[in-house]
Amino acid sequence: MTYSVAVSGASGYAGGEILRLLAAHPDIEIRTVTAHSNAGQPLVQHQPHLRSLAHLTLQDTTPEILAGHDIVVLALPHGQSGQYTDALGDVPLVIDAGADHRLTSQDAWDAFYGGPFHDAWTYGVPELLVDGTKQRERLRGATRIAAPGCNASTVSLSLAPGVAAGVIDPGDIVSVLAVGPSGAGKSLKTNLLASEVLGTANPYAVGGTHRHIPEIRQALAAAAPASTGASGDGIRISFTPVIVPMSRGILATSTAPIVPGASDVDIRAAWQNAYGDETFVQLLPEGVFPRTADVLGANTALIGLAIDRAANRVTVVAAVDNLVKGTAGAAIQSMNIALGLPEDRALSVNGVAP
Questions:
Q1: Could you give the CA distance from residue 243 to residue 207 in angstroms, rounded to a whole number?
Q2: pLDDT tens digit string along 40-54?
Q3: Is the N end or the C end of the chain the one with fewer CB atoms within 10 Å?
Q4: What is the reported pLDDT for 182?
């Protein structure tokens, strides 16, 4: 069966990456692409690398144009998807790459985003541990999927095994991320100009203000054993992203205290048991740590683990391509699961080098 797809926000970075991956998907027909200010222009004017889609013209983003497809993917700025999802009730599968349907708590939404609150959809991180199982079980047959925030899923995948196994204390997490500016979208912003980014590292959203914090707390609370009664209130994280001069990529370094009594064997086993049979999330050998270059263009999260007994903390270093595993790849992987297709269809573990 071939599924017809409409992609909104098709002139942006996330929309372009979704289209690049879908263009190689044998079960997908990309029928419609939409935008706002760029409507009426050829898609390749804004995505010149998508040569196989040169026949497509950007249309207006309206519920009427998006309706009538088997799948609609929304790659819109945060706070803009909800106005369309409410009107797409007849579409069999809708995937939101924005934040509008990620959070279960309205209080968290009001505190970090503001504006109308929309119900949470099935979270699109298949490998994430939830109540002793994997999130992919909740994605099977799903009709509404919330693709993750790239920083949030990277940190959550980094630490969920330790939280689930009870070998780290999630009440004192510190995460520092080196991130590429493509994660901020394609809109023109002074702080993202080449002259402001090249040759420097720029911290932003410092001091607990980044919008991905409640998403991380929500994911890690869900990973905690049900017997602990853990909630987002028990997950405390100091989260500091830093823009660095690479167009793509996230290198997340996260640390958390070791729970008394947890042995080195117990700690490494927690991550090995969680990801040992996963295709797209891979634990590297002891003493080996990833680089962002190793995941460029791949739907892969590579994780390195160190046990720092002097500081009594676990250090986890994770690398992802923010536009693939962080966004578009996660959306398509989740779509494949929801439709009953092979999970890796149109997705690769191989990066691009040099």
A1: 15
A2: 999 999 999 999 999
A3: C
A4: 86
Catalytic residue among 99, 150, 157, 173: 150
Q: What is the pLDDT of residues 258-281, one digit of tens each?
A: 999 999 999 999 999 999 999 999
Give yes or no for a contact between 18 and 7, defined as CB atoms under 8 angstroms apart.
yes
- Under-70 pLDDT residues of the chain: 227-232
Q: In what order do the strands lie in the sheet with 122-123?
A: 58-60, 28-35, 3-8, 71-74, 93-96, 144-146, 122-123
Q: Which residues of 156-195 are buried (b: 16+ CB within 10 A; e: fewer)?
A: bbbbbbbbbbbbbbbeebbbebbbbbbbbbbeeeeebeee
Q: Cβ-count burial of 55 within 10 angstroms (0-12 exposed, 13-18 middle, 19+ buried)?
A: exposed
The answer, yes or no, to whether the previous bond of 342 is cis (omega within 30 of 0) is no
DSSP line for 253-298:
EEEEEBPTT--HHHHHHHHHHHHTT-SSEEEPPTT----GGGGTTS
Judge contact between 63 and 36, C-beta under 8 A. no
Give dist(CA 98, CA 25) in Å, integer.
22
Does residue 150 have an active-site annotation? yes
Contact in structure between 106 and 117 (CB atoms under 8 Å): yes
Which of 112, 259, 106 lies closest to 171, judged by CA?
A: 259
* Residue at token pair 């419609």: 32
